[in-house]
Design a protein that fits this description.
The chain has about 160 residues and is of the alpha+beta class. The protein is built from 5 helices and 7 strands, in the order E-E-H-E-E-H-H-E-E-E-H-H. It is about 35% helix and about 20% strand. The two termini are about 15 Å apart. The structure holds a DNA duplex (10 and 10 nucleotides).
DNA sequence: GGCGGAAGAC
DNA sequence: GTCTTCCGCC
């Protein structure tokens, strides 16, 4: 752990640094229960939910296009049949202090992941060396963002 | 809609 | 600890 980031060795040739909040050891308690931000990323990853929730605007920014449906799906996952957007959004607001999310002010149903710290350390694998996976120090486009998250989701 | 306190489930 | 539930406030 360096400067609020964890460095994870993905393979012998690739290391990734990302914020502490994105890192959870397998042995940590509660790791069996899905977390809301994992679930949000899971939906964002699937094209079939583009009309429900989608990346939009700035990098890491997403819009909940159908709040009732997102709440319904979250309720199903957590076996909470009375889940609604009012309650789900309270859970999202708890992420503000944890610096996992923040609100995009003025944009309805729009939140943003705090991913400014995410960087690739060292060189990625050879087949990745010329791919968009090679990230800039503090910025990356949406394509890189999604690819990185596929890795993070595999790790988690 | 969005915010955050308070209490409680697990 | 991570939400879930409820709610007063803006």
């Amino acid at each position: 752990s360096v400067a609020g980031c964890h460095i994870i060795k993905v393979t012998v040739a690739c290391r990734i640094a990302f914020p502490d909040w994105a890192y959870k050891p397998e042995s940590s308690p509660g790791s069996r229960q899905i977390q809301l931000w994992h679930f949000i990323l899971e939906l964002l990853q699937k094209e079939e939910y583009q009309n429900v929730i989608a990346w939009q605007g700035d990098y890491g920014e997403f819009v909940i296009k159908d709040p009732d449906e997102v709440a319904r799906l979250w309720g199903i996952r957590k076996c909470k049949p009375h889940m609604n957007y009012d309650k789900l959004s309270r859970a999202l607001r708890y992420y503000y202090n944890k610096r996992i999310l923040h609100k995009t002010k003025g944009k309805r149903f729009t939140y943003k992941f705090n991913f400014s710290k995410v960087v690739l350390v060292n060189y990625p694998l050879l087949e990745m060396a010329n791919s968009p996976f090679l990230l800039a120090q503090n910025h990356f486009n949406e394509s890189n963002f999604l690819k990185l998250f596929r890795v993070l989701l595999i790790l988690s």
